[in-house]
Amino acid sequence: MTSASELRSGKTHRDENFPVASWIIHPPHRTLILAFYNFVRTADDIADHATLGEREKLDTLDLLEAELLGRGDSQPEAVNLRRALAQRSMPPRHALDVLTAFRMDVTKLRYENWDEVIHYCRYSAMPVGRFMLDVHGESTSTWAASDALCAGLQINNHLQDCGKDYKALNRVYLPLDALAAAEASVEGFRRGAGRGAGIGGPPAMRAFAGGPDRGSTQ
Fold first, then answer.
1. Residue 5 falls within a domain, yes or no?
2. Is residue 86 part of a domain?
3. Which tens digit of pLDDT belongs to each residue from 18-33?
4. Do 126 and 89 belong to one domain?
């Protein structure tokens, strides 16, 4: 099997539109944060890979999970995160949650309603905020506010890339019932594939106008 590292897109923490392990982060935390980022970035690239089949994507994600849990040492991103977490006596729960989201990316191409979108965010975005809070020793009582923020950022990312996601991967996160209520359709995404221009016009934008109003899922 091709290693997960070989399937990376080439994108690094320096290419993101958000800071990763910024200089304002206390230096002892940066190694763990970068290890978490590299693990998640690798898994994300696998799920979004343009030529890999569904079975190969899922098998590679399973391999990353197995090695994160100590069953093997062939995948550097998993091994490095496992060791970094062990040094802090932290469990891998948040990384495992994110893998659940990437498996959903591979197998679920449409979302019927906001409940389904927020369920996806529970695994794709909320664990990242929870991880950062845990790294800094914060109480789990802070998770609810973080969950809301992370879900909002995730949905904003969906808006930013939805045309590209549809054209490249046939993946649509915009709820189908919201599209229908706005008299829009999935096919409208074909009109925009670039960042910031992917929502296919005003009807699709109206589908997001109401937005979700959900609490945290612990």
1. no
2. yes
3. 555 566 788 889 999 9
4. no
Return the residue matching tokens 């802090």. 88
In terms of residue numbers, what domain contains 63? 26-107
- Shared domain for 62 and 123, answered yes or no, is no
Which region among 86-90, 104-108, 122-126, 198-202 has the lowest average model confidence (pLDDT)? 198-202
Q: Which two tokens stand for residue 41?
A: 């970035």
State the Cα–Cα distance between residues 12 and 70, nearest whole angstrom: 25
| Residues 137 and 214 placed together within one structural domain of the fold | yes
Between CA 97 and CA 134 the distance in angstroms is 14
Comparing CA positions, the residue from 208, 170, 205 lying closest to residue 187 is 170
DSSP per-residue string spanning 148-196: HHHHHHHHHHHHHHHHHHHHHH----S-HHHHHHTT--GGGGGG--STT
Q: Of 69, 89, 107, which one is at a domain's C-terminal end?
A: 107
